Amino acid sequence: MELTNIGTVRDILSRHGFSFSKGLGQNFIINPDICPKIAEYGNAREGFGVLEIGTGIGVLTAELAKRADKVTAVEIDSRLLPILAETLEEFDNVRIVNEDVMKCDLHGLIKEEFDGLKVAVCANLPYYITSPILMLLLESRLPMESITVMVQKEAAQRLCAKVGSREAGAITVAVNYYGTVKSLFNVSRGSFMPAPNVDSAVIRIDLNDERKLDEEHERFFFRMVRAGFEQRRKTLANGLCSIMGIPKESVCSALETVGLNASARIEQLDMEQLIGLSARLIDND
Ligand code: SAM
Fold it and tell me: How far is the CA of 26 from the centre of ligand 1 (A)?
């Protein structure tokens, strides 16, 4: 079935009485070039199990299923289930899990579904929860090789920004802490049905095998990073003092040890400096 053919898509949707939910971020891909590329870049190949988040009518799911050993897709909208039963009928290596990905036991799911396989995530993410989903995937430390996702172009720019630049945010630090991020290609708004008001981009995060910090230090590091970015216009000394209650003098002397002065703001610190700062401040906690 040609799932990027507008006539075919309209026919399936109308036969099932389906109407798009804006609230669930339902913009389905109708450009035939996109999904094969996401699948290829996203490690959908022999020896891999792919976890997809948000199937829509299964246009990416089908491309993943053609290439990977197994595809397990988490989709919140039960109205899509009868549609997927039709569109993915030819594949015996796909399983749809009708759940909210934010509430799903992903560790359990991966263990159950992908025994003996390497694991990759591929998705055209619902835009309203891009950051929470990415943070969940990263912080859960799931046994995965890569996360390849389509996100809004502005979100991609933030994710791929340099840590220590004005474009960076807490999520930029997180992706660079857990792995290496790369922008792959842009996708115009006309590639979707219905067309959103923004363009998109596909990025891939290749995950590190090893932890950079021990668990306690890691928790503190991210509390510090979140606090710093919450008050990114303030100096770190003021921001960390007001949110975390760390004395200003302690922040200033810790900043000195990483080569910065009291007026430093979080967006000026690169990854090494952020880690150095947190190593100094953890004792003040
Ligand atoms: N993969 C399809 C495509 O590219 O055409 C659909 C992508 S659409 C941008 C996002 C999909 O995520 C929708 O099918 C939507 O119902 C689903 N979704 C939204 N919130 C979700 C959640 N919390 N958990 C799981 N799926 C969700």
Answer: 6
Please work out whether the CB of residue 53 comes within 6 Å of at least one atom of ligand 1: yes
Burial of 218 by CB count in 10 Å (0-12 exposed, 13-18 middle, 19+ buried)?
middle
Same domain, 124 and 145: yes
Last residue of one domain, picked from the residues 184, 207, 230 = 207
Q: CA-CA distance, 217 to 228, in Å (whole number)?
A: 16
| pLDDT of 128 | 95
Buried b / exposed e over 13-36, threshold 16 CB at 10 Å, is beeeebeeeeebbbbbbbeeebbb
For 166-175, the pLDDT digits (tens) are 999 999 999 9
Residues 59 and 134 placed together within one structural domain of the fold: yes
Read off the pLDDT of each residue in 82-95 and give the average, rounded to a whole number. Answer: 98
Res 204 pLDDT > 80 = yes
Instruction: Summarize pLDDT for 44-64 with one digit per residue, the tens.
Output: 999 999 999 999 999 999 999
- What's the pLDDT at 92? 98
| Residue 1 falls inside a structural domain | no
Q: Within this chain, do residues 193 and 243 fall inside the same structural domain, yes or no?
A: no
pTM > 0.90: yes or no: yes
Question: Is 96 within a domain?
Answer: yes
Question: 285 falls in which pLDDT band (50, 70, 90)?
Answer: low
The domain containing residue 109 runs over which residues? 6-207
**Nearest to residue 147, comparing CAs of 233, 212, 50, 242?**
50
For ligand 1, whether the C-beta of 76 sits within 6 Å is yes
- Specify the ligand 1 atom closest to the Cα of 101: 24
Most informative mutation of 53, 71, 72, 199 for ligand 1 (most atoms within 8 A of CB): 53
* Residue 61 belongs to a domain: yes
The closest of 127, 59, 61, 139 to 96, measured between CA atoms, is 61
